[in-house]
Predict the structure.
Amino acid sequence: MLSDRYGRQISYMRISVTPYCNMNCYYCMPKNVCSGKKNESEILKDDEILKLVKAAVCLGIKRIKLTGGEPLLRKGICQLIEGIKKLDDEMMVTITTNGYMLYDMAEELSEAGVDTVNVSLDTVNRERYQAITGVDCLDKVKAGIKKAREKGLRIKLNAVLPEGRESMCHEEIMDKASEIISEDTDVLTEVIEYANSVGADVRFIERMPMNVTGTDNITVGEEAASKTDYIGRLIALYNLKSVEKSSIDNGPAEYYRSDILGVRVGFIGPLSNDFCRECNKVRVTYDGRLKTCLFYEDGVNLRESGFDKDRLTGMISDAVESVKHAGHHFTEEARNKYREEKNIKRDMRPMGCIGG
Ligand code: SAM
Ligand code: SF4
């Protein structure tokens, strides 16, 4: 098993399969940021991804998440999933999608053997959804989720915690948004109740301050909503009880169960919770750079391996052993805790460009 100098075992790889997206979430990839056409030769090809995963398997990594951009935009994504699944009997492949194309692809995804589909759904209010993503397609996404459940797919919902309307950047609908973005706890309970109705666990995520302006300036402050702003009321409302993660959970979420709900409610707190100590993950960007932490600019260009298995395993294990950081620096507390990292440069790209 691959482990780093802090004793953390690395068992999970997130691979960004495309830099493109069909939405413009205000915290991830707002309009005109990261939206330009990329040089197609930079984007990893299927055979390169398969070679990369084969090398990861040799190092004990058998959990792969495909992400982006929007991964369902990638041509042949289901064949790629099938190919990855075939690399190892224990291989677990999950995908994170905005759900826009899920209705059309649910059957194919199910046949490809994807283990879980994570759908990003911050709200079940149509106008609020449009304010956040820039696209008026909530019903389409919900129809995709329904179809996916009918096809037997396991679904998890991901919701970024609600924030004030001032952080929304879709000016054309800002006026409407101001009327609907006020009672934030109700946004959460609506999402929880929808998740329960479709039999999907839901995880609420604290927004990480990324450079969404594309101006090398982190303008959407560090004071994002914290899970602690909400968790107490939700625990009381649903009588939530903390539970252990199951063996198929590979992320940093803390889960709760309730007698009132059939599904689990989770929280991912990159800002309020020190999940770096348990980090089990590496990322690969759409253009083939291995990143050992989302926050830092440094990365290893895996293309330099020529996709040779031995060179790939060497590069991945060297990076994990010598580069993987103790923790991120998104908050003052984290900066103090992980002082040894202070001279390393921050990655100034928004999440969607890095591969969230
Ligand atoms: N397009 C797909 C989707 O939306 O699920 C996959 C890529 S998206 C970058 C993956 C996840 O990153 C989404 O659940 C999204 O909410 C989350 N994300 C994006 N920007 C974020 C930020 N600044 N803080 C926290 N989560 C973020
Ligand atoms: Fe696109 Fe996903 Fe980012 Fe939204 S969160 S802009 S859907 S990549």
